[in-house]
Amino acid sequence: MNLNIYEETVKIKYILLSVISGILLAFSFPNFIEQDIFVHTFFIIWIAFIPLFLILYEEVSYKEIFVYGFITGAVFYLLSLYWLCNIKPMGIFAYVAWLALSLYLSLFFGASMSLSFIFKKNCNIDFLLSIPISFTILEYLREWLFTGFPLQTPAQSQLYFYHFIKILKITGVAGANFLIYFVNILITDIIFKKKINFNLTKTNFIIFVFILSVIFISFIISNIKSKDNYKKIKIAILQPDINQDVSEWTGDFRENTLKTFKELVLRLKDEKPDIIVWPETGYPGVLNYEKWRAKEISEWLKGAWHIIGSDKIEILKDNERNYYNTAFIIDEKGNIKGEYSKYHLVPFGEYVPLQNVFSFVKKVVKRYGYVSFTPGEKIEPINYKNIKLGTLICYDSLFPEISREFVKKGASLLVHMSYETWYGRTPATSQIFQNTALRAVENDVSLVRCVASGISGFVDNNGKIYNKTKIFTRQTEIKNVDYKENNLISFYTKYGDWFVYLILFFLITLIIINKREKDVNINN
């Protein structure tokens, strides 16, 4: 009986440790709306995993360690993603989505803990390597598996740690993630063993030193001042603070919306911007069928180009239609000079998955009148005169490979257009802004962000945010933005997620070496 009580007490202790880690992780990310209340809590994540990692050193099984990792993930995601419940058009399904997504993402925490435990017990890979490698690789997987969900990565929390976050120019988020996990397990190891102990096998030690050397060199290189040639371009952003619900696109609503945009544009007449950026779907209609409107808009402020978010319709045979979420760029005469259609659509928000695979899904979608958008076919920059711009629409900005592809194809700066009004006064738009700003750092370019109701602003190539707007305000901002004249690209832009492949290679190497050593011991 006493033994049972002891075991239950120990389990409760482990659960509490898991919950504490989840809470600490949640507070490592921005939970502010207009004031940067928690902006300097980025340091918390460097110790947030310690309570959870302490359990690894106890007498537990890989199944139990999975559960404790899952609990940490569940607490973290349920707290930090509660804003999903605020998407009113989804009704009660918003709560279902919040719960389902949080629990799904928690599986990666559980799996990372279990794999680290298995690699330690069965492959003799020390926790100092197995933890950061397992967590980093599975973090990478969750960023693209089943369309992916790249929000709330450890690297995202470090945006305001300016000297550290520059490492993304070399390694991408994976290098930053790896180092954060490593520091957590190193401190845990010291706490448990009461001393600094690098008593690793020879192979473990060599790989351990090599990976840390790569990260250290990446950190040094990324903090060397760039010799790129920069020029300035004056860009304005329009934040109309208007509900852009398509169901409200009546004649009066459309005219009032355009009137609001015109008033905002006229505020800029003394500033003489080169480009004026509208938010995602800012234009209340279908611009490719209303080109005369583009001519009208160009008359509002002579000499300015506009990047306008709008729906686009493509008529197919048998009167079938493709709907696109598109950014159009129009010149000073109102001519459409280029376009980009959103490449990575939001599942269930903009399209229903598998409808082209299963005919019955397509029939259900049609029956209930759901408009399912079509993703853009390619990632190509749009041109302002001789300057190439990478336009990211909403969800696009969360996926590093999209921004990277734009810059590889010559984009000198990135423009992010988004809506986000439906999240209300929650941390959502701050979290998205923080994640989006990482794209500027990774690719060593400036980024302009324009959101319908905020938070909008400008980001330099080191992740510093300028002219940040307040949420749910109607305003304009304008800034001389740096862009590269020589189009030199960062190491990450050129080579992508090389760091993930490197640590995966070392993991496989360690597993193979361990297997061979076991075979030798058996034969002897």
Protein architecture, described:
- The protein has 524 residues and is of the alpha/beta class.
- It has helices spanning 2-26, 50-54, 62-80, 93-123, 127-142, 162-165, 168-171, 173-193, 202-222, 251-266, 291-300, 359-367, 400-408, 428-443, 491-495, 498-523; strands spanning 230-239, 275-277, 305-315, 321-330, 336-341, 382-384, 387-393, 413-418, 446-451, 457-459, 465-466, 475-484.
- Helix 1 (2-26) packs parallel to helix 3 (62-80), helix 3 (62-80) packs antiparallel against helix 4 (93-123) and helix 13 (400-408) runs parallel beside helix 14.
- The protein is globular.
- Mean pLDDT is 88; it is low at 32-38.
Low-confidence stretches: 32-38
> Structural class, judged by helices and strands?
alpha/beta
Beta strands, count = 12
Helix content: 40-55%
Proportion of residues in β-strands: 5-15%
**Individual helix count:** 16
**What is the residue-averaged pLDDT?**
88
Task: Write a brief caption for the model.
This protein is an alpha/beta fold.
Which labels suit this protein?
single chain; 524 residues; alpha/beta; Nitrilase/N-carbamoyl-D-aminoacid amidohydrolase; 3 domains; 6-stranded mixed β-sheet; 16 helices; 15% strand; globular
